[in-house]
């Protein structure tokens, strides 16, 4: 959500706080539970859970077709994060303590939920998690519960609901808000029916890129002020080698290769990047000239920082256009909570104001 709230914001959308942590897909089946990265599908950990099919105990007496698939955020316990911070990523992952905060459900006890609307899925997930199983109970290895699952509350997009989501009272640190269209089916990847939003209060990462200093240093670029405030984006070179495009399902052209200068003499020319490969770009002070109605990028102030190192596992995708424009807007004229509350109050009945 980079420019404004949807026209039907109040009537047809839900709001919820997004827990800060690792977005993942959790699959429980055949006596074990596996968490995979939502970004690239790599396995994060395998464990026992109270989900149907997620442990030897919860699989007993169930058919082989018993499985659950949940969209979650793993929020690590802050003390555990500090304890493992100096032992490397693998050690931190293996010894992590925390909870899986459930955002959505794709399947439950063998029944696929992808085609159900969000209104039904949210109610179903909350009811099944809290009434049908003990997955939400405290961890107990003896009972096959290595981690707890926590239902994430959702609210109507009226003034009260948006305010409650914004308060972020979900038992862990938050990273912005998520908005879901009530009638949306579950879709993998980016969709205009699920919107993310942040500001400085709800996210430690608002207008900050913790990896920017390293990327700029390797490219030989020195900027005044705090380097984490720089906006660095990832784009892919089109198959014909002429353009740099986004990672959307229908890639959007951001700039012609010939129009993008290199960020420093230390960096090779953009033309040397192979078609299909991704590169990093520094967004200059002029930012983007965008047609608000069509989200078409007329021009972009970009400086090439070099190729992005390929991932060892999984597929590396360029940034989506909405992410690029949101982060650019956040640094110049951010969409604030007042605008969201105004949209939530639009055409509201008097009874709603009085509640």
TrEMBL record:
| Record carries keyword S-adenosyl-L-methionine | no
InterPro entries for the chain: Snurportin-1, Snurportin1_C
Q: Where does the Snurportin-1 m3G cap-binding domain start and stop, copy by copy?
A: 3-79, 95-195
- Any single GO BP term: snRNA import into nucleus
By its UniProt entry, which SUPFAM superfamilies does this protein fall under?
Answer: DNA ligase/mRNA capping enzyme, catalytic domain
Entry's Gene3D superfamilies? DNA ligase/mRNA capping enzyme
Q: Which GO-annotated molecular functions does the record name? A: RNA binding
List locations, semicolon-separated. Cytoplasm; Nucleus
| Domain of life, per lineage | Eukaryota
Instruction: Give a GO cellular-component term.
Output: nucleus
The main location is cytoplasm
Q: Does the keyword Lipoprotein apply?
A: no
Alphabetically list the UniProt keywords. Answer: Cytoplasm, Nucleus, RNA-binding, Transport
Job of this protein: Functions as an U snRNP-specific nuclear import adapter. Involved in the trimethylguanosine (m3G)-cap-dependent nuclear import of U snRNPs. Binds specifically to the terminal m3G-cap U snRNAs.
What's the family? Belongs to the snurportin family.
The name this protein carries in UniProt is: Snurportin-1
- The scientific name of the source species is Ostreococcus lucimarinus (strain CCE9901)
């Amino acid at each position: 959500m980079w420019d404004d709230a949807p026209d039907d914001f109040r009537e047809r959308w839900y709001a919820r706080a997004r827990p800060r942590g690792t977005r993942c897909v959790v699959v429980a089946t055949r006596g074990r539970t596996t968490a995979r990265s939502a970004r690239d599908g790599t396995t994060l950990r395998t464990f026992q859970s109270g989900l149907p099919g997620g442990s030897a105990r919860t699989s007993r007496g169930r058919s082989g077709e018993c499985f659950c698939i949940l969209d979650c955020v793993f929020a690590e316990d802050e003390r555990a994060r500090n304890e493992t911070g100096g032992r490397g990523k693998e050690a931190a992952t293996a010894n992590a303590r925390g909870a899986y905060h459930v955002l959505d459900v794709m399947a439950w006890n063998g029944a696929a939920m992808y085609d159900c609307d969000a209104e039904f899925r949210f109610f179903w997930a909350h009811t099944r998690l809290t009434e049908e199983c003990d997955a939400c109970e405290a961890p107990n290895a003896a009972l096959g519960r290595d981690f707890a699952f926590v239902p994430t509350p959702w609210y109507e997009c009226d003034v009260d609901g948006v305010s409650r989501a914004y308060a972020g009272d979900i038992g862990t640190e938050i990273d912005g808000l998520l908005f879901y269209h009530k009638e949306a089916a579950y879709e993998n990847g980016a969709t205009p029916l699920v919107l993310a939003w942040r500001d400085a209060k709800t996210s430690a990462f608002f207008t900050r890129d913790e990896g920017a200093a390293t990327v700029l240093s390797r490219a030989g670029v020195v900027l005044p002020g705090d380097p984490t405030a720089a906006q660095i984006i990832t784009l892919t070179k089109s198959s014909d080698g002429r353009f740099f495009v986004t990672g959307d399902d229908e890639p959007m052209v951001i700039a012609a290769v010939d129009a993008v200068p290199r960020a420093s003499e230390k960096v090779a020319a953009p033309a040397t990047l192979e078609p299909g490969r991704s590169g990093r770009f520094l967004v200059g002070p002029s930012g983007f000239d965008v047609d608000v109605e069509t989200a078409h990028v007329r021009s972009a102030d970009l400086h090439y920082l070099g190729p992005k190192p390929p991932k060892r596992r999984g597929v590396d995708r360029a940034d989506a256009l909405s992410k690029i424009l949101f982060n650019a807007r956040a640094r110049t004229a951010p969409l604030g909570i007042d605008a969201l509350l105004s949209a939530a109050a639009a055409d509201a009945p008097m009874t709603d104001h009085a509640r």
